[in-house]
Amino acid sequence: METNSSGSKEPQQQQMAETSGQSQATSNEWCLIESDPGVFTELIRGFGCVGAEVEEIWTLDAGAFYHLEPIHGLIFLFKWIENDEPAGRVVLPDSEEGKGIFFAKQMVTNACATQAILSLLLNLQHEDIELGETLIQFKQMCQECDPYKRGQNLGNSLQIRQVHNSFARPEIFDLDTIKQQSSLTEDDFYHFVGYMPIGNHLYELDGMQEGPIELGEIKPGQNWLDVVRPIIEARMKRYCVGEIHFNLMSLVSDRQRAYERQIATLQKPGNDMLLDSNLSEAERMIEIADLQRLLEFEMEKKRRYHKENSRRRHNYLPFILELLKQLGETGQLMPIYEKAKERSILQANYQFSRLNAMPTDCNDESVKVETNPPPK
């Protein structure tokens, strides 16, 4: 769980390390991780896993899921509610069913982002995904352990913690002062859980629970996404009208690798698959060109992820201080401050008027619940 005591405010702000002027969490601490597909994709790469990436899902409409397939699992971020009852049956880890599922209790504060993605990866068996040496060794080490010991092993894993904490941002201000001034209540905690099919059942993997939560059967020929979507929507509807701090991401196969394989197949002369497909030479060239455009898009996306992650880690404090100094010396600082102050007052008045007009019924079924993109 991402706790308020560690600075969590909302899904897009879960990125601060508990240090002052440092770019890494210290000792055995785990930093807060931003709920962003670029961060999670680079986390997976850092663990040594190959063939998987993370994509964000903006709506619960079926079309938002199917174009990303194969989807191996979902990562859901939501506001944690104390004493919230599980949505299904908790599977005992020492039962026959539980023994077939890798489940770890969350024993470390702020580790739930990494724990959610590892819960999916360590239960996944797919030809596209290669776990890599670090995760294979971790899984083997934990195979005979109970969920509590697995959680402790995760917290003590230097390699995994270093990758996680590589996303710690340098702190610009003293967080203790910010926390004292924060208007957040003690209930403003955010938590990651995973959803995935295992066998012919759907499970929720939540390190705050005592075991995996079995949510329902996946019937023969049924897409597991059709089972999980109503469950996530029902969970979101339990919150008051106006609550938008949700984030949903999917664990998918690396699309760049898939496109590269398809292009190689189409370019290979005398390929039996091409002979069976009845593609003409012109059609084959058109398909290759289409795949190359998609491949370039994926490569550009990864370059963008890398650039954004570099910016997340960069310390902008010297630049900010120099900018303020120059604005002050040229007489531009106070006019900018006054305009910002005026805009802030207008926004506060607008939000206050919206709150007064908002219905108080938290179970208003007339409201369509969907994930919302973060404000820019």
Low-confidence stretches: 3-26, 174-187, 364-376
Strand order of the largest sheet: 1-7-2-4-5-6-3
The largest sheet, given as strand count, sense and whether it forms a barrel, is:
7 strands, antiparallel
**Which band does the percent of strand residues land in?**
5-15%
The CATH architecture of the largest domain would be: 3-Layer(aba) Sandwich
Instruction: Note the total helix count.
Output: 14
Arithmetic mean pLDDT: 82
Can you say what the CATH homologous superfamily of the largest domain is?
Peptidase C12, ubiquitin carboxyl-terminal hydrolase
- Helix-strand pattern, N to C? HEHEEHHHHHHEEEHEHHHHH
Category by helix and strand content: alpha+beta
Reported by name, the CATH topology of the largest domain is Ubiquitin C-terminal Hydrolase UCH-l3
**Rg result:** 23 Å
Indicate the multimeric state.
single chain
* Integer tally of domains: 3
Count of beta strands: 7
Share of helix, binned: 40-55%
Q: Name the CATH class of the largest domain.
A: Alpha Beta
Subcellular location: Nucleus
Protein name: Ubiquitin carboxyl-terminal hydrolase
Pfam family, one: UCH_C
Domain UCH catalytic: 29-253
